[in-house]
Design goal:
The chain is an alpha/beta fold and 120 residues long. It has helices at residues 16-23, 42-45, 47-58, 77-89, 105-114; strands spanning 30-37, 64-71, 96-100, 117-118. Strand 2 (64-71), helix 4 and strand 3 form a beta-alpha-beta unit.
């Protein structure tokens, strides 16, 4: 992780272990984190590119997982299905952890901290 080039106040961080447990991320996994809103620019955020890159980098790595923190998949059902179909085609179904919900900024910071890599 590269530290932010600026300081912001987010309060004390939850432990990596408790955050991983809360969101179903295995304790021993190498976790790659990606955050996007389905109502935002899907093609600019390029979640399909994230799936392809993760597949190329980690398909042979047993303990790697990709954590997608999303919002509004229920309002964009065809796009969400398209994304999950691609994950299936890339054999990533068991490596993909999807959190489709609003979570407070404090939890986003904790989730980012609990993962090993943030992919953008």
């Amino acid at each position: 992780k590269i530290p932010y080039p600026f300081q912001f106040s987010h309060g004390p961080l939850a432990s990596k272990e408790s955050t991983r447990k809360k969101y179903g991320i295995p304790a021993n996994a190498f976790a790659v984190f990606f955050n996007f809103d389905f109502r935002s620019s899907y093609y600019r955020k390029n979640p399909e590119g994230i799936l392809h890159a993760f597949s190329k980098a980690f398909s042979a790595t047993d303990n790697a997982v990709l954590v997608f923190k999303t919002m509004y998949a229920n309002l964009c059902k065809s796009t969400s299905k398209q994304l999950h179909d691609l994950a299936a085609q890339l054999n990533l179904e068991k490596k993909l952890i999807t959190i489709d919900d609003f979570i407070h900024q404090e939890d986003v910071v904790n989730l980012t901290n609990a993962c090993d890599v943030y992919m953008s």
